[in-house]
Specification:
The complex is a heterodimer of chains A (406) and B (467). Chain A contains eight helices and 28 strands. Chain A has 406 residues and is α/β, with parallel strands linked by helices. A five-stranded parallel β-sheet of chain A has the order 5-2-1-9-20, covered by helices on one side. Classes of the chains: A alpha/beta (406), B alpha+beta (467). The structure holds flavin-adenine dinucleotide (2 copies). Chain A: This is NAD(P)/FAD-dependent oxidoreductase.
């Protein structure tokens, strides 16, 4: 084999990628950290009002300051940081194809870790009806307008969605002189916990549950939106639509490679070490499943960084993985696969999500034997954690069963 | 050097409407040596029907036999193949399968094959379902039979008209945008009243697409046709879908429409559509959730591997259909006017043919021009995946749009080109910026910054006092 550029290439410099890179350096590995943006920090860079870093650094940082803290820590640890590097392809030979201002290059390493994060679903992927004028954006885009350029895409948006990030959307609007005309959530219940029950109304923004967009109007810029609520149509004048939440992994590199993505999580399938179907490739952070907090992504990156470090010196594990299967209405399970291995796992718990608000009994079966169960009301877009039994990787059949109860 | 406009200057030909047809006509007359002006009411070229189509360069295998449409599709396709190198235009030589999914449809294939041969597309081959699936295993096993049409290709539907106009401009043509024709009067010469002032011209060519009949009325004619827009909605699937769809998959057509097509795009995606929906409105081309869901489902019926494939983009286009199926071409020699109307569903393929035709019609009432001594080649920026993209070349600056890998150099270059973008749609069509799977999550803010003061409708609102 020709000389390697590094022991590990980390693709994506958000909290998970940086945490992994630092951990790998601590374990004595040569690490190149690639990010296509001009600075590290990932999605935290534009979250100007969200506090980050309490758990990992013992104090809070906002937006770009958190990214700078990550950069300092990575530099201190001796990580070779390369921003402005867009990874275009995960190649079959285990290298990555990169394009940068000066041109194209190929980088090789023994292991590759992909930490490319998650993003909100755009209007198109939601198949929303109407014209296609300017002014229909996501929270991340709105925040980028403000944080990086001091611009605003609208002044009177309609906000769609009620996941946690929608609070961020409201705050971002209000603190920059944009006045949302209303907030709508297609489901009968707000998705985030308590604050959403009262927060928008407190701010004087009408909040409609069970309401959906049926038409977006506007030739050049958004002029109005028609919503349907309880069978009634109503047209709201507004100059933008702010689509919040519905996060999806930014897993394009996997989607376009032979590895593909898991149909449930839309991210790469990984085992309990964070290792993908290709034993040289790992993944961590929000690319695995959308969406978790910055602190979660950081800890997950660190754990998987450690697992990769331990993986050195061994032949890449490529035992046939056992898929973790599940019943509807479970949406996803991460890790998605399990491999028989002696190494300590990076994941201590399975992470699950359900597709809709549902009451019932959730259980885990190993080779048909029930090893864990819980009953309750399960909410969409909320994390569900189930301990991974130590003998789970030995099972031939790992299945999450769900029985609905009223 | 492009000619500077002068008041009172009389153009040899004024072309009304910068769709693909108008752009091709501007090029053809400029090549012939005419002094040309192209008038467009929108902020950019391709503001009408031409911004949204399936991007198939048709052979005419299924066109009405003996029709003008057939003749001009064939001529247009032929010329495209001849000039594409000199204009640096892409051609994805996919070929097509006309797929029969049941016995009745299969019975029709023989007739379609005969028609194709009569229409001069002689390289078609009837295939059994098994043969077609051997060549393209991703097709559903419900396939009964197929007609292979090797000559159906995919092109870049935006770069082609841009290249035609750019060449015209290089030959001295003037492109006037934001100029709506309000009224024309003819008294030996044409006086065209537009929202951007009066234009004098010796002859007019009406290429107003969805407004062809309206513009004829404004020119003082009793229009010989009426436009009845027919909407087509599309879904664009993620680039990961492309490996399952190496060819154009056509249905057996009905009387009304060519039907739902699943085909590759020059940009590496897969297109599903279009629908055929009659409407009165000439402006609104909305997409509708239910229809889009049906398209997504249909794609997975045809190619099962497309089930669950993420949707990248949605769009809808309006076909300038009229009350008759064929092209609606009218010449009024006494008023020195030509109307190229009702170019419903094959205009991308036939545009160059229509332009040749218009020049011939013009020669029947006007003196020939003196062709220019030299014809410049045009280095149209390449957006197609089958050729080298800018990101693969050195010193592109940086990637601005990550999903489509659009470089800063490409975006800067398009704004300093002879026909720069006039609106955001125009920028997207010239560079692909913001057209990828994230639809601007990562780059829209950056584009707002980079395009400040350059687009008719800015991405960012005026924030004076807003912060
Ligand atoms: C609008 C919004 C609001 C949020 N609010 C909060 C909040 O209030 N509190 C909270 O805890 N969390 C919040 N989050 C989530 C938090 O930002 C994420 O959990 C965290 O950033 C995830 O880290 P990550 O490392 O997995 O991915 P990211 O932070 O998304 O980082 C991924 C990195 O990968 C890079 N990348 C992607 N593809 C490539 C490629 N092909 N080549 C090179 N580089 C690539 C990107 O440039 C990016 O820097 C919010 C997220 C968003 C979008
Ligand atoms: C859904 C769909 C799929 C298609 N698929 C294909 C395909 O695969 N292959 C193919 O070959 N063809 C295809 N077509 C057909 C093709 O797109 C059309 O035939 C073609 O775009 C018609 O172009 P045009 O120049 O005649 O009209 P337009 O593109 O409508 O151009 C007319 C222009 O005139 C301007 N205008 C109007 N009124 C005025 C005025 N008063 N003053 C100044 N300017 C004015 C408009 O703004 C517009 O820009 C498809 C069409 C649709 C809708």
């Amino acid at each position: 084999m020709s000389a390697l550029d590094a022991d590990v290439l980390v693709v994506g410099g958000g909290p998970s990628g940086v945490a992994a890179a630092i951990e790998l350096r601590r374990q004595g590995r040569r690490v190149i950290l690639l990010d296509r943006e001009p600075a590290l920090g990932g999605a935290t860079r534009h979250c100007a009002h969200s506090p980050f870093g309490m758990l990992e650094f013992g104090r809070v940082y906002f937006g770009a300051a958190y990214g700078r803290k990550l950069t300092r820590e990575a530099e201190k640890a001796g990580v070779d940081i390369r921003t402005g590097h867009s990874v275009v392809e995960l190649c079959e030979d285990g290298s990555v194809l990169v394009t940068t201002g000066p041109g194209v290059e190929k980088l090789t390493a023994e292991r590759i870790l992909v930490t490319t994060g998650a993003r909100e679903k755009p209007r198109s992927a939601r198949l929303l009806s109407g014209d296609r004028p300017i002014g229909v954006v996501t929270t991340g885009t709105l925040q980028s307008y403000l944080a990086f350029h001091g611009l605003l895409p609208f002044r009177r948006p309609l906000i769609v969605g009620s996941e946690l990030v929608s609070l961020s959307a409201v705050l971002t609007c209000l603190s920059h002189g944009a006045r949302p005309v209303a907030m709508i959530e297609p489901r009968a219940h707000a998705l985030a916990r308590a604050p959403l029950a009262w927060f928008p109304s407190l701010m004087g923004i009408p909040f409609h549950r069970g309401a959906e967009i049926v038409d977006i109007l506007g030739r050049t810029r958004v002029e109005a939106v028609t919503i349907r609520r309880g069978g009634k149509l109503k047209t709201l004048d507004c100059d933008g639509v702010l689509l919040t939440g519905q996060f999806t992994p930014e897993s394009a590199l996997f989607l376009q490679s032979a590895l593909g993505v898991d149909p449930g999580s839309a991210g790469p399938a990984v085992d309990q070490q964070g290792r993908s179907l290709d034993p040289r490739m790992f993944a961590a952070g929000n690319v695995l499943r959308a969406v978790e907090t910055g602190g979660w992504a950081f800890r997950e990156g660190r754990a998987i960084g450690r697992a990769i470090a331990e993986d050195f010196g061994r032949e890449p594990e490529d035992g046939v993985p056992v898929p973790v299967t599940f019943d509807a209405p479970i949406k996803l399970v991460v890790p998605n696969i399990l491999r028989r291995t002696a190494s300590a796992p990076a994941f201590r718990q399975f992470q699950l999500r359900v597709l809709r608000r549902v009451r019932g009994r959730l259980s885990l079966e190993l080779d048909g034997r029930e090893v864990w169960q819980a009953r309750g009301l399960w909410m969409p877009e909320r994390r569900i954690l189930v301990p991974i039994p130590p003998d789970a990787p030995q099972a031939q059949n790992v299945h999450f069963r769900f029985r609905e109860e009223d | 050097m492009p000619r500077q406009p002068q008041t009172g200057e009389t153009y040899d030909v004024a072309i009304i409407g910068a769709g693909v047809v108008g752009c091709a006509v501007a090029r053809r007359f400029s090549l012939a040596g005419a002094k040309v002006i192209l008038i467009e009411k929108g902020a950019d070229i391709l503001s009408g029907a031409s911004k949204a189509n399936s991007a198939i360069l048709h052979t005419g295998f299924d066109a009405p036999p003996g029709s003008l449409e057939l003749e001009l599709v064939r001529a247009g396709r032929q010329e495209y193949l001849e000039i594409r190198d000199s204009l640096n235009l892409a051609l994805v030589t996919t070929g097509a399968y006309v797929c029969a999914w049941n016995a009745q449809e299969a019975e029709k294939l023989a007739g379609i094959e005969r028609q194709a041969r009569d229409n001069g597309t002689t390289d078609v081959v009837l295939r059994s379902g098994g043969e077609a699936r051997a060549a393209m295993p991703s097709l559903s096993d419900r396939l009964v039979a197929a007609l292979e049409v090797p000559g159906e290709h995919i092109i870049d539907p935006w770069s082609a008209p841009l290249a035609y106009l750019t060449q015209a401009v290089a030959l001295g043509a003037r492109f006037l945008r934001g100029a709506e024709l309000i009224k024309g009067t003819f008294d030996g010469i044409w006086r065209l009243e537009t929202t951007a002032g009066e234009i004098l011209a010796d002859a007019v060519v009406n290429t107003a697409g969805l407004y062809g009949d309206v513009v004829d009325t404004r020119l003082g004619f009793t229009p010989g046709f009426r436009i009845k827009p027919r909407k087509g909605q599309f879904v664009v699937l993620d680039k990961a879908a492309a490996r399952h769809v190496p060819r154009i998959i056509l249905p057996v057509p009905t009387e009304v429409t060519k039907g739902i097509v699943v085909c590759p795009t020059a940009f590496g995606n897969v297109l599903v559509g279009p629908t055929a929906e009659e409407q009165e409105d000439r402006v609104r081309a909305t997409v509708e959730t239910q229809t889009l869901e049906a398209l997504v489902a249909r794609a997975a019926e045809i190619v099962p591997a497309l089930a669950g494939m993420p949707v990248t983009a949605l769009y809808a286009g309006l076909r300038p259909a009229s009350e008759e199926k064929g092209y609606r071409v009218f010449v009024r020699p006494d008023q020195r006017a030509i109307t190229l109307g009702g170019i419903r569903s094959t205009g991308l393929s036939s545009a160059l043919g229509l332009a040749q035709h218009a020049l011939k019609l013009h020669a029947d009432f006007a003196e020939p021009f003196t062709p220019p001594a030299q014809v410049p080649d045009i280095a149209t920026p390449n957006l197609a995946e089958c050729r080298e993209r800018d990101w693969q070349r050195p010193d592109h600056g940086e990637i601005v749009c990550h999903c489509e890998l659009v470089t800063r150099r490409e975006i800067e270059a398009t704004f300093s080109s002879p026909v720069p973008p006039g609106d955001f749609g125009g920028l997207r069509r010239r560079t692909r910026a913001g057209m990828g799977r994230c639809q601007g999550f990562y780059c829209n803010a950056r584009l707002a910054e980079m395009t400040k003061g350059k687009l008719a409708t800015p991405l960012a609102i005026d924030t004076e006092g807003g912060r």
